């Protein structure tokens, strides 16, 4: 497929170092990885690995309109910053939009996790993009910075005393953290247990099955649905194999399963993505989630990362920082107890490339699939 000058589909031999350009860089994200592209391809998206003349790379996902031709292009969590200025990133996205228009797409949406303070929203507006509702559950995030070379004492300095007491008490009661992580398959690391290196894949698959069941129970309790186990486990296994994911599992001294959490390696960040605990065991075994996060801090520091990304807690609709009385305020305070700081991100932006067909395609989706499917049409977060 041909496109605008300066943007082209990558040749197969150029994909070998793809993740080094899109994931393992400052501002990188697993949703720009080869593994995420392959996962989305299995669910019906058209995958475009795009290269720009300045050496940057962008994963874009295409979805055709029913009946009309044309379609939508989504750049998940990209273009990644990789240390570039906001104006440069906006120019890259504009070039991708020009490519998309030439390739027959009618709209383009992107939601790179770039702080708003950089001026990225204004830079995008100058290229014809407008702010739109998010694809994922949150626009902003809570970030806990990690000083260079931090040891445990340095990490503990920003963690609230009561929070430290909870995970230290859990340790004293013999709570253990099992780590499933192909990136460090040869050694568990201080504070972790791990399956034998030759059993990581088998053991991780069983752990992912347990985790999906746990998330299902959490969803029933909180009123949200999760996707089928087969698709979720397939993605988690692919991310594990690529070294993008670590699953941490909390167990009691007698090996009772207490909870687990998934973390992604997004450039300089270790991102807290999904978690759950066994509610019935909270009273008998308190502190499981606290200890999981403390171990994640230790892992992130050990790997030289500068941030533990604690995820978002936006107020629904307003996308604002929760205030006392808001439903999400308690979760925000929990994350602040680990030294988390609210970070305003630029959020999702869209540019209409061919207005008439974009309007028609949107109407077809709304009529054929309903408002909920339309709202989710760009695809879920991992």
Provide a compact summary of the structure.
This protein is α+β, with helices and mostly antiparallel strands. It has helices at 18-22, 34-42, 86-102, 120-125, 152-156, 161-172, 200-222, 229-241, 288-302, 329-336, 355-375; strands at 7-9, 46-52, 57-64, 71-75, 107-110, 130-131, 141-145, 176-180, 245-251, 257-266, 269-277, 307-309, 341-343, 349-352. The strands form 2 sheets. The chain has a 7-stranded mixed beta sheet. It has a 7-stranded mixed beta sheet with strand order 8-9-10-11-12-7-13, sandwiched between helices.
Notable characteristics:
20% strand, 382 residues, disordered C terminus, globular, alpha+beta, Aminopeptidase, seven-stranded mixed β-sheet, 2 domains
Give an account of the 3D structure.
Helices cover 35% and strands 20% of the residues. It is α+β, with helices and mostly antiparallel strands and 382 residues long. It has two domains: 164 residues, 3-Layer(aba) Sandwich (Aminopeptidase); 203 residues, 3-Layer(aba) Sandwich (Aminopeptidase). The strands form two sheets. It has a seven-stranded mixed beta sheet. Strands 8-9-10-11-12-7-13 form a seven-stranded mixed beta sheet, sandwiched between helices. Helix 6 packs across helix 9 and helix 7 crosses helix 8. The longest helix is centred in the middle third of the chain and has 23 residues. It is globular and about 65 Å long. The two termini are 28 Å apart. The C terminus is likely disordered.
């Amino acid at each position: 497929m041909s496109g605008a000058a300066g943007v082209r589909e990558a040749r197969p031999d150029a994909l070998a170092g793809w993740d080094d350009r899109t994931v393992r860089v400052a501002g990188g994200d697993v949703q720009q990885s080869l593994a995420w592209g392959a996962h989305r391809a299995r669910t019906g998206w058209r995958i475009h690995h795009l290269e720009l003349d300045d050496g940057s790379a962008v994963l874009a996902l295409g979805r055709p309109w029913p009946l009309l031709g044309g379609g939508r292009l989504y750049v998940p969590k990209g273009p990644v910053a990789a240390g570039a200025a906001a104006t440069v990133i906006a120019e890259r996205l504009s070039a991708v939009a020009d490519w998309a228009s030439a390739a027959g797409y009618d709209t383009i949406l992107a939601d790179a996790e770039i702080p708003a303070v950089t001026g990225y929203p204004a830079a995008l507006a100058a290229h014809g993009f407008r702010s739109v509702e998010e694809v994922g559950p949150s626009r902003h995030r809570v970030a806990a910075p990690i000083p260079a070379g931090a040891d445990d004492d340095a990490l503990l300095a920003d963690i609230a005393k009561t929070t430290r007491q909870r995970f230290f008490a859990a340790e004293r009661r013999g709570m253990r953290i099992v780590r499933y992580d192909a990136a460090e398959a040869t050694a568990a690391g201080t504070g972790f247990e791990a399956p034998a290196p030759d059993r990581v894949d088998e053991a991780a698959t069983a752990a992912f099955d347990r985790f999906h069941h746990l998330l299902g129970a959490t969803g029933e309790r909180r009123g949200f649905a999760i996707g089928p186990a087969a698709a979720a486990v397939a993605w988690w296994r692919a991310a594990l194999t690529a070294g993008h994911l670590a699953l941490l599992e909390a167990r009691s001294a007698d090996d009772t399963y207490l909870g687990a959490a998934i973390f992604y390696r997004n450039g300089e960040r270790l991102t807290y993505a999904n978690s759950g605990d066994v509610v019935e065991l909270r009273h008998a075994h308190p502190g499981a989630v606290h200890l999981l996060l403390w171990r994640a801090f230790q892992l992130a520091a050990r790997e030289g990362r500068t941030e533990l990304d604690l995820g978002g807690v936006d107020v629904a609709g307003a996308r604002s920082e929760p205030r006392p009385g808001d439903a999400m305020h308690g979760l925000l305070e929990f994350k602040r107890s680990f030294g988390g700081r609210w970070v305003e991100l630029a959020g999702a932006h869209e540019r209409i490339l061919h207005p008439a067909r974009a309007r028609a395609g949107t109407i077809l989706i709304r009529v054929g699939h309903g408002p909920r499917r339309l709202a989710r049409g760009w695809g879920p977060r991992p």
